[in-house]
Amino acid sequence: MVAAAFPIVVAGGLNGPTGAGVLSFFLAPGWAGYRGNPRRSWLAPLSAQLMASLGTWVAGRATGSTVGGLGAIAWENLFFGLLCWGAWGVGLLARRLRHRATLLARLAEAMEAERDAREHAILVEERQRIARDMHDVVAHSISVMVLQLGAIRSTLPPDTAQAEMMRNVERLGRESVRELRALVGMLRDAASNEPVRNPSLARADELVAEVRAAGLPVDLTVDGDIAELPAALDVSAYRILQEALANVLRHAGTVPTRVVVHRAGDRLGLTIDNDPPPGARPDRDPTAGPGGHGLVGMRERVSVYGGRLAAGPRPDGGYGVDAVFPIGARR
């Protein structure tokens, strides 16, 4: 509608739309690029350019165009076309920046949830350790003390003050054992009522589903049995996968990415490979930046198990991370 106003006012005898009309004429393609799907929003600048061309053609016919007039019309068409498509491009850029900010916010929320789950898992593990210690050490020791007191009491005359004192100590000991067992039950019930799903490569499909929901197209391939990995190695491999996918979102955006988890014998391999972002230079390292703690952390996780990590740009401009863990080896 905004674009159609251009030829209408020209056909009505005016020199062209007013200042507000011209501003709206250029803002409309930009707004379409910002709010609409690029596969459809390109119709907005195209329509605006066609309407501008129609308006200048109508104005040229009304004034009797000469060769010089036709040249001016051509330049006007070029001018309006560049402005229309330029406004649309600015809208697309703003749309991409907004989308990336949304993805980073979702990623931050996911990492915060993982941190909370890890802290909760530590708390539950500590509760269970205390419960085991209380049951296996404290309660057992008190039970042995009560039995020994009963044996000593049986050697004393039954109506003496010493025998009565031993009987009272036995009773207090049995009550303490009952209270300790009740407390152990409370600790274990609290732990069992709050289950925590620890990070594991067995949950790689859930992690991939989360980043897919954030807009990253990921193809996951699992080759071999990854259900019985050592717990610590399993967590480290999961964290490397999580960090690598986060780096793709952070540095390359929503580009096609492939994840391969491969286990062969006593070796576990991880490969995360993404396509180059639009306009990327093949010699640019997407993880190069202030600190580089993500890549350093990956190397540290792999080196603990005597493995190796290779990360760097691919010849096509993409980026790849390859990690290999020897299963059963730890430095």
UniProtKB/TrEMBL annotation:
Pfam families cross-referenced by the UniProt entry: HisKA_3
Catalytic reactions of this protein: ATP + protein L-histidine = ADP + protein N-phospho-L-histidine
CC terms in the record's Gene Ontology section: membrane
Origin superkingdom: Bacteria
Annotated TM spans: 6-30, 42-60, 72-94
Domain Signal transduction histidine kinase subgroup 3 dimerisation and phosphoacceptor residue range list: 126-190
MF term (GO), any: phosphorelay sensor kinase activity
This enzyme's EC code(s): 2.7.13.3
InterPro entries according to UniProt: HATPase_C_sf, Sensor_HK_TwoCompSys, Sig_transdc_His_kin_sub3_dim/P
Residue ranges, annotated region (Disordered): 269-297
Name this protein carries in UniProt: histidine kinase
Organism expressing this protein natively: Actinoplanes digitatis
